[in-house]
């Protein structure tokens, strides 16, 4: 079946007409190339968008206060209200399966609100608990982050973004332990943070300042008010399933009508993340379908050429049948020629596609990150699947010509001119 003479014959058939063989193979090369390129482009887009979620606890919702739209319990519509610290414990008691509840406050002045010596800038200030570090896409670059001792003792300390450090301090200046003035209140810098993934926008993202929630409330007269909350569910449990219970708990606590859908604002990050996942799953299937259709057109070309080859070798087949060669042997010969042509063309397409992907990654590495596009790749599973498709396609492409070959009667084949 796999003897030397058979392979020699296969090579002679494929090399007899180089131009025709190349044109036939090109359809398969182009099909597998398009398939790989589409899948790699989709993966690059997926990597780029998911990079924005890097370090963020995706099983999280964010909740904030809005204006009531319905009167309730003697209170008018159009009422502004605040969450309270006790609401955090109420949510924890009434909604099981929550891992982290981070109450937050934020402030930003109309003009410059942070000063250091002769330097100043306008930055967003957050009053936070230490757990926010597990929910956010930042990491401590130098020094430390807020801890619970800072919360308990209401320490006026600050963790600044690396962009803030560059704005306010000299490059060689020792900033840890320095005091900055935030809205007229002195805070000691104890650390800096950076974004885990910024896609080229790190300088803007790192222009924020984190201070202990309790120190923020005391310094800026927020009492026990909470501006908004970041709430994360335990692994294996969907925060989306808990949104209704969380919202209803704060509605009851803040005396809001149960049917008032606009009084509590929230954003379900987990739901949005799942939508992104679904989008990319659909994109992968579209790439597979489009690439496969292009590949099928190439396979049809292989099948047509093999029919022509069988027609050209009619007398040869008749002689081989007359000499006693079995129909199965002739059928196997045609099938192997089809599979060999398809596999060689497919491997060329895979190599060509891999080189193009390598070149794209090299360009991205040299030019820096591109928004929403990062590290386009194709997994080994995809390559192996493509090879499997090629083998099956080669068999299908050779099946009709092979059956045509064995249907020839030796006497009719010998009469053919």
Automatic annotation (TrEMBL):
Domain MacB-like periplasmic core residues, every copy: 21-240
Highest taxon of source: Bacteria
Protein name, UniProt field: ABC transporter permease
Lipid metabolism as UniProt keyword: no
Coiled coil: none
Protein family (similarity comment): Belongs to the ABC-4 integral membrane protein family.
UniProt domain ABC3 transporter permease C-terminal: residue ranges: 288-406
UniProt key word Cell membrane: yes
Transmembrane segments: 21-41, 285-310, 339-360, 380-400
Organism the protein comes from: Croceivirga thetidis
Membrane topology of the entry: Multi-pass membrane protein
Family matches, as Pfam families: FtsX, MacB_PCD
Principal cellular location given in the protein's record: membrane
Keywords, sorted A to Z: Cell membrane, Membrane, Transmembrane, Transmembrane helix
Cellular location(s): Cell membrane
